[in-house]
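Human
Can I borrow your eye for a moment on a structure tokenisation matter? Give me a protein, with the fold worked out from its sequence. Write it directly below this note and I will take it from there.

Assistant
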Amino acid sequence: MTDTMDIRDKLTAKRAAVDAELARILTGEPAGMYEVMRYAVGGGKRFRPLLLLAVGEALGAQRSLILPYACAVELIHSYSLVHDDLPAMDNDDVRRGKPSCHKAFGEGRALLAGDGLLTLAFEVLSRTPFDPALCSRKERACREIASAAGAEGMIKGQWLDITLAPGNPGEEAFLDLIRRKTGALIRASAVAGAVLAGAPEAALRAVDDFGESVGLAFQVRDDILDAGPSPPPTEPNAVAVFGRDGARSRLDTAVDSALRALEALPVDTGELRYLAGTLRLESGFLS
């Protein structure tokens, strides 16, 4: 119990550091524009930046070095939610327990806020100082994040989400969708943390496997909770594709795979094991 409480305290401190840095980044003129951007970012659990920080620090990186990268992935994630919620996409009225951005501020302002968050993420990445001798790490980390956010990652995943046949699109197509739409940025967050820490290739492969499994578990868990006791929605959903019991089995298998991947890392992986464990249905998920 003491170890778990200690891990939770450490993750809480990491989340507070991310929130403070995001507040600093999201200040400027016009004040109204930054207000909408802060609204869009507010209230998240910070799962992706916590992954990046936990991986990076476990492998020896200093928090001051990797914190901007953690904030950048949260900016990208938040932009994607703003655009995802728009009437032209998923048309969701609620996000993070409050009115979605376009409901609170209108579609035009929400669209611009999302654009601003995405662009700001790469401003943050580009201006982050780094030892010139280690710039290859920065370049690789930025490439991982950009690829996850781009046409072969989140954008393609969203494209598949709105173009695949509703209901059950088939297992292969559905898994490709969630690996891109949700899993790509989660995986990139973990890998970027390892890259910035200068992890050897064996450790990078283990972190890659961990991130891949966590990304799958994250979306399957969301789908199970979204489906609730009612029939699955018409949009692609793990419960529609695998059945309720099958989706639960996929979730547990993905979490188990993530935990096995961590066994290859010769460092303290307690925070990473905790984060993966929060994805099980019976957990409190970062509560």
Q: What stands out?
A: Strands lie at 94-95, 98-99. The chain has a mean pLDDT of 93. The two ends are 16 Å apart (CA to CA).
